[in-house]
Every structure is written in structure tokens, then in C-alpha cells.
Amino acid sequence: MKNIALTGFMATGKTVVGKKVADILSFGFIDTDDLIEKISGMKIPEIFDKFGEKYFRGIEKIAVARASRLKNHVISTGGGVVLNPSNIVQLRKHGVVICLKVNPEVILRNIGDNDKRPILATGDVYEKIKALLAERQHYYEFADYTIDVSNMSIDDAALTVLDVYSKLKTR
Ligand code: S3P
User: Residue 109 in contact with residue 157, Cβ under 8 Å?
Assistant: First the structure.
């Protein structure tokens, strides 16, 4: 069966919702951020710190290509995966790409105090979230379908992903 690739901004619930969906479908689950850490042998903040974002995006591309080749998997992607359109092309080859959308207030709440995301490490977090969301909006639109999960529980979001997948898997 085709994969389900979840895209969307940081802290929109891609991992937690993706795991739930994988459980229900008895699919495997893979997170591209985990794969990046495995490939590089480093934690994400360390990669940014030592080698910068460009290097990180290079490894991310390899991770996406690897994950895309799997079958029967839910693939949770990092929030910046969409910035390289070829990543979306890869994910769509064997999968349905579903974007989870959340408003900036919920993102801020989900992120909490102990955020380890280097992209949000400098400046005012809320302002940064809003600016990045605006900047990336266009890229997130390349998904097959977008679900606004701002007011949904994890279970509701998972069920909506399943519903969308069942309609789009034969496209
Ligand atoms: C990033 C999102 C992160 C991670 C990295 C960069 C981004 O993943 O890939 O810190 O540029 O939006 P999550 O979306 O899982 O937080």
C-alpha cells in the first residue's frame, strides 16, 4: 500500500498523529528527523551548530529519498522538508502527502519552553513562528491535501488523516 507522508510546520503533531495512524493501519512508522540523526550520528542541534542549515538540508534530502522508497509506512517529515520541491516529488512517488496545519498560537503552546529546534533558537519565538509560517505557506501548499488540526484532538486528527488517505490512495 502507498505510504502516508505527513508534512507541516514544526509542532503541528506530525509525529504523534503519524504514530497513531501507523498503529491503526498496522503500517511502519518513520520520522525523517530520526533518520537524519542516524545517518549523521549527530543530534539535529549539533548538525546545525557544527555544519549549518545547508548541510542539514542535504542529509534531510537523503533521508527523505530513503523513507520514500518504503512501502506501507507513515512518514513524519521535518517542518522544512517542503522547502526543497524535489522532496515532495519523492514522497508523492509512493505515497499520499498530507499537510497538518495549525495556527501560530497552538504551535507556540505545543512548543513549550524546552524547545530544541535550532530554527527557532534566536529572537522572539512567536514572531519567528509567524514569519516562518508566512514564508513557507506557499511550500506547504504542494501537499495532496491539507487538514487544519488546530482544534482537533490527536484521535480526531488521526481519523481525518485516515479518511483523506482512503480517498486519495488510488489517485
Ligand atoms: C525544522 C523542523 C524540525 C527539524 C529541524 C528543522 C524546520 O522538525 O527538521 O529542526 O526547518 O522546520 P519538526 O518539524 O519535526 O520539528
Answer: no
Write the residue with the smallest CA distance to atom 8 of ligand 1.
78
Q: Which of 117, 129, 132 should be mutated for ligand 1, with most atoms under 8 A from CB?
A: 117
DSSP 1: -
Would you state the cell numbers that stand for residue 94, as one nine-digit string?
509512493
Q: Look at the pTM and tell me if it is higher than 0.85.
A: yes
Taken in order 161, 162, 167, 168, the sign of the CA dihedral is: positive
3-class SS at 80?
A: coil
Residue 58: beta bridge partners? none
* Predicted confidence (pLDDT) per residue in 124-153, tens digit: 999 999 999 999 999 999 999 999 999 999
Q: Is the CB of 64 under 6 A from ligand 1?
A: no
Q: For residues 76 and 84, is the Cβ–Cβ distance under 8 A?
A: no
For residue 10, give the ligand 1 atom closest to its CA: 14
Q: What does DSSP say about strands 28-31 and 73-76: parallel, antiparallel, or unpaired?
A: parallel
